[in-house]
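User: Okay, second chain of the day. Same drill as before: sequence in, structure tokens out.
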Amino acid sequence: QVQLVESGGGLVQAGGSLRLSCVDSGRTFSGHVMGWFRQAPGKEREFVAAIRRSGGSTYYADSVKDRFTISRDNAANTVYLQMNSLKPEDTAVYYCAARAQIPKFISTYYSRNHYDYWGQGTQVTVSS
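Assistant: Same drill. Structure tokens below.
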């Protein structure tokens, strides 16, 4: 059974950094795509970043490009999200997600409806 567990959230001042981690503790799962999404109060869950398990292709939302970096350690079944130059508008619950199959279309990476498994989320709060 797939279990995604996020960690690394917290409170940070604007301009600061945080690194989120997501461990896939499932014994049989080998998700081809791992992603990060976030949801602020009163807003829909939105795409942040994604990475393919093989090849390492990465995808970012425009709002975080050049500030956030997604990476993975396949041997450790872990995906990271390094967040730099944080802004108050980055405040949200951040969710790790996994998709079992390789998408046929680039747009699939950006859609929360095309991920099969989700973590419980970790709170990130950026103070001004």
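The mean pLDDT is 92.

User: Thanks, on to the next one.
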